[in-house]
Amino acid sequence: MEETTTRARGEAAQDGSTPGGFRWLLVAGALLLQLAIGGVYAWSVIGGALEEADSWQLSKVEASLPFTVSVGMIFVGSYIGGRLQDRRGPRVVALAGGAIYAGGILLASFANGSDDYWMLIVGYGVISGFGLGFAYIVPIAMLQKWFPDKKGLITGLAVGGFGFGAVITAPVAQALLDRNADDPASVFLPLGLAYLVMALVGASVFRDPPEGYRVLGYEPPAGTDAGGDAVDYTQGEALRTPQWFLLTAILTLSVSAGIALISQAKSSATDIAGVSATGAATLVGVLAIFNGAGRIVWAGISDRIGRMKTFAAILALQGVCLILLPHAGSVILFSALAAIIYLCYGGTFGTMPATAGDFFGVRNAGAIYGLMLIGWSLGGVIGPVLASALIGEEKAYTLAYTTIGVIALAAVALTFVTKVPAGRHAEHD
Question: How far is the CA of 301 from the CAs of 110, 206, 309, 330, 354, in angstroms?
Fold first, then answer.
């Protein structure tokens, strides 16, 4: 659809040639930023190399810890970044987040063997994870304001690049490792520099819509404002509703299920389906396509069938596929089940921002959804830790994935009791 705006603050909402083109330029910038920070999902390729390299020889738990810490720090960054972008605007926050993220990865590149393990924890884990969260929340909140007519689809696109980040990073990281297998940390230098350029270029176009922004042809539901919202909750008001906690619980449990496999994807493919190390790295990159696609596909589906029905399907499919996965001895069956899990995992992040917008409004989306991302951090810790602990040195994949799959199936019950707060329109309920 085309949009027209008042020319507030000297900013045009159009690119001067194609009506409505500027908001799609913002989508392109968001995708570039998210491609950079989404490289975190290729960690299993690097983690596997850290287990095998003579200078490192980390245990499975030790090799997964930098990734776990990074995901655990996302909430801290998204909480602070979400509040700041609502006050200071999206560009400066996204630029800072991208720089911090890349800086942490560059610090990790100085690690030289197991004695420098702390550099991976601090650089890749604490600093990079904080910067990731700081930048991640910005395009989600910003684009909902530019696209009130396509909330589900556009938030799916906004985070789609994050899922696709590993598609690029996994094969590149493997190629770099093949050249210098004795020094796995060396991959962080070229990756960190590339991420820095991508993040800064993408974030440089960010801005909020000017006052008076309207989308031609879009009619908000009766009784709502131009963005389709009846009531815009503040962060404090949202936290006083049971819905915020229910949505956060759904996010936590869905993330735990999907990221349990993501954190062990390479070794699972090798041990369960007999895939070679190089083939497993390639598979991780291919599966990342489904992570990215799921964010767009499920978000679009949620616009049609409703948010809670979508989450019920996502959790149920993850649960069933995780239970079946350890018994998938063939590469084809393993890949198919893993692809569905990745698709649903991505769908969680594509659908939840629009769900939060439906429940609480978009005016304070940065702060409200930024705080809700504690579910991502909790799930990002619970899933990998539970998976690595249950799998252990005995490679007990059946125990691990069955346990996590049952938890995902039980979580479906939450979708039947989570309703839009009274006083808000329920067109996506």
Answer: 44, 27, 10, 31, 12
Which residue is associated with the tokens 């569905």?
340
DSSP line for 198-229: HHHHHHTT--PPPTT-EETT--PPTT--TTS-
The pLDDT mean for the chain works out to: 84
Q: Give 12-70 as a DSSP string.
A: -SS-SSSTTHHHHHHHHHHHHHHHHHGGGGGHHHHHHHHHH-TTT---HHHHHHHHHHH
CB count within 10 Å of CB 223 equals 9
Confidence of residue 14 (pLDDT cuts 50, 70, 90): very low
- Class of domain 18-208+230-416 (CATH, top level): mainly alpha
| Residue range 344-365, pLDDT digits in tens | 999 998 899 889 888 988 777 7
Q: Please state the pTM of the whole predicted model.
A: 0.75
User: Which alpha helices (DSSP H) does 121-150 contain, by range?
Assistant: 128-146
Determine the Cα–Cα distance for residues 341 and 336; give it in Å rounded to an integer: 9
SS (H, E, C) 102-114: HHHHHHHCCCCCH
| Amino acid 335: pLDDT | 94
- For the record, the structure tokens of 263 come out as 């954190």
- Which of 183-197, 336-350, 399-413, 414-428 is least confident? 414-428
Let me know if 290 is exposed, middle or buried by CB neighbors in 10 A (0-12, 13-18, 19+): buried
